[in-house]
Amino acid sequence: MTQTLHHAEILTEGTQIRLTRATLAPTRPRALHDHDFYELFWVQNGRVRHHLPENTATLSEGDVVFLRPGHLHALQGRGEHALVVSLCIHPDTIKALAKRHPSVKGHLFWSKGSPVQTHRDIRQLAALNHAAVQLENSACDTLAAEAFLLPLCAELTAEAFADDTPRWLTNACTAAKSPEVFRDGSAGLVAIA
To answer: Closest Cα to residue 123, out of 178, 171, 181?
Structure first.
């Protein structure tokens, strides 16, 4: 049985976005859920198993995922201290951004198909967390939601590859930005690809 989460039950009156930090249990989720809002989450610490209808992916610190309404998924901690930061975003906020900024279409929340996953290195993750703290201390209204989302979406849209680029190449190029990949020499990059 699939559970549907509703933004009207999560967002208080006048808010457009809500940030939640959660430590995930290592037990397998009973079922996938969907929602009528947009969700953005990132792995703050540890590793997380992301269950989708078609597969399961293991996410690590710095992985960021963009989900549209109707995307079925569930999260499971891998080991101790698996922490995610999740944003529930009102659908009107995301629709308004696309209307005013047509360059985001086809990217992130506005892509077709499966949820979009990207990675932030340690510096980028620190900036994302700084923005999250500012968001937590705000009214979480439209202005605060856009102040958080616009810089992130602009940066990631600028980094986006053409749609015909193979996923393995996109993953390898993204991973190559992190020095940890090369600790095993070229074999480390080959393993990512």
So the answer is: 178
